[in-house]
Write a structure and sequence with these properties.
By secondary structure, the protein is an alpha+beta fold. The chain is built from 3 helices and 6 strands; from the N terminus they run αβββββαβα. Strands 1, 2, 3, 4, 5 and 6 form a 6-stranded antiparallel β-sheet that branches. A hairpin with a 6-residue loop joins β3 and β4.
């Protein structure tokens, strides 16, 4: 099942554009795609918040709605959805801030996981980042002249 078939479709944007990420299409100069996040809006009937995500490509525009208990949750879900929407397009899209096909949306684990598992995942991720950072810094560290090696 694709991401677009799992996300609820929207009819009307939730509010003004809050953030936008533009991509260049590889091998198609002058053509762009973009993801737009709209400002979350409160539903007066339920008190919940809706945040719209627009996925815009040449000749295609889709609107999705993400709902949260508060505006922060709606926005967080919209950012995750935006990342899911561009996932799989690393070969055809380029983001100016990305290298090697990175489109600027970090991976995330699903909501609702047990607290102990979330903490375990966070420790694992932090350990891997620390290891990578140490290795990168060791490669950059200049050797002192005259220092013994080995």
């Amino acid at each position: 099942m694709t991401t677009t078939s799992r996300l609820p479709r929207g009819n009307r944007p939730s509010g003004p554009i809050l953030a936008e990420r533009r991509f260049e299409l590889v091998n198609r100069p002058g053509l762009h795609a973009s993801i737009r996040l709209r400002r979350p809006a409160k539903d007066p009937r339920t008190g919940n918040f809706k945040c719209s995500v627009e996925w815009i490509r040449p000749q295609e525009r889709e609107l999705f709605e993400l709902w949260g208990i508060d505006s922060m949750q709606a926005l967080q879900l919209a950012i995750l959805a935006a990342g899911d929407l561009v996932n799989g397009y690393e070969e055809t899209l380029r983001w100016i801030g990305g290298e090697g096909g990175y489109l600027g949306f970090p991976g995330a684990y699903p909501e609702g996981l047990p607290k102990a598992l979330v903490r375990k995942l966070e420790r694992l991720i932090n350990r891997e980042i620390a290891t990578h950072t140490r290795q990168t810094m060791a490669k950059r560290k200049p050797r002192r002249r005259g220092a013994k090696v080995g």
